[in-house]
Amino acid sequence: MKFGGVSVKDGNSILHCANLIKKFSEGNEVVVVVSAMSGVTDSLLSAASKCSSEASAGYIKLFVAEMMKRHYEAVEKAVLSDEIKSRVIQALERLFDELEKVLLGISYLGELTKRSEDYIVSFGERLVAPILSASLLSLGVDSVALTGGDAGIITDKSYGRAKPLPGVYELIRTRLEPLLKIKRSVPVVTGFIGSTEDGSITTLGRGGSDYTATIIASALNADEVWLWKEVDGIMTCDPKFVPNAKFIPEISYQEAMELSHFGAKILHPLALIPVMRKGIPVRIKNVFNPDAVGTVICANTKESKDIVKALSLIQSSGIVNVSGAGVDFAEIMAEVFRILAEEKVNVIMVSQSSSELNLSIVVDKKDVDKAYKALKVIENGVTKVSKIENVAIVSAVGAGMAGTPGVAGRIFSALGKNKINVVMISQSCSEYNVSFAVKSEDGINAVRVIHDEFGLNA
User: Fold this and answer.
1) CA distance 37 to 190
2) Do residues 147 and 21 share a domain?
3) Is 212 within 8 Å of 192 (Cβ atoms)?
4) 213, 276, 284: which is closest to 248 by C-alpha?
5) Separation in Å, CA 11 to CA 6, 17, 154, 444
6) Which of 195, 223, 251 is the last residue of a domain?
7) What is the pLDDT of residues 280-328, one digit of tens each?
């Protein structure tokens, strides 16, 4: 079971989660993965950045005091035993002392490395796990709090976007199975956080708590993964964009991966890979409506009459174009992707013209300038690099699209009728996905038009 930041945003919420865990752990072996309290990760990142540019011991004292207040108030509400409260407060005091020293160190150095950033941002989860574990203990459920490293999630040294090493699954099993089977305990593991072999803290990327949960599930051959969110399950589109979006009871791994890659806030894009290998279903559950069945993400779904199952929207992106006549485009492409990989630029979508004279690459809005400047080095009078800023990416996803003629035609005809200009198009060979770029201001309207065209409204 993984609980996100909103699910553990304060003491009452943490106690609610503890009660859910107690209810479902009767007759089941349960491992819990927990995120930082809502907003804490961003606060820690902001504080780290501020400390690296403005040395201020006073600011650090104030920041840590505010963090302490929020977490101690959570302990007061979430932990029902005074003795257990006292123990968890002592554990938190040590963490806050450590956090203050780290921030002071960054302030003195005036430098923030990716390694230091991972260390600082890890405090969000490391503070919540002991509180939730203590809450369970106070409800009579044996529990132990562990960091990702304690649980066996050993990673490479790609700070900020670390990858688990190949042998971690066996290590996780040897560390967690005795707690589950011998101690009959509920481990509460920090999401998002791993550790290198020499003990340095790493993070798996934003939203990485989902990934932590599925790595552990795969290691333990779990029956299911439950991702507790604030919605009843996956919808045909984000209700923020399409208010009459409807609930989807079942979706395939492939469909869910396509949606998460193209901006749907379902789960971490890598999260399904560990469970796909073993066919472990992932269930999206509502923490505020725990009796709702939720959406199941699994290997094979029932036949659906829906051609397009769901839509996603990335509102803020940009396109970098590489073009040139009479060049060896295979060499240029290899060089382009080598440069982008070195610059750690996340590529969302790629489209290439059939004449091999143009390569269009969609990247996050924050990466457009970095990608553009990095790729300018390949300009030589023949090869040119340009950029288009402020585009939105719409993705239509559904297994029913495979082998169904005219899907793309319907999509672009509907957009044309509504005077929405398409800047770029990409379709996967699986035919599970048709994606296209439009101007940022047309993104929401484009999603609504396609949602209506395929009758996805509730």
Assistant:
1) 12
2) yes
3) yes
4) 284
5) 11, 10, 31, 36
6) 223
7) 999 999 999 999 999 999 987 666 667 899 999 999 999 999 988 666 7
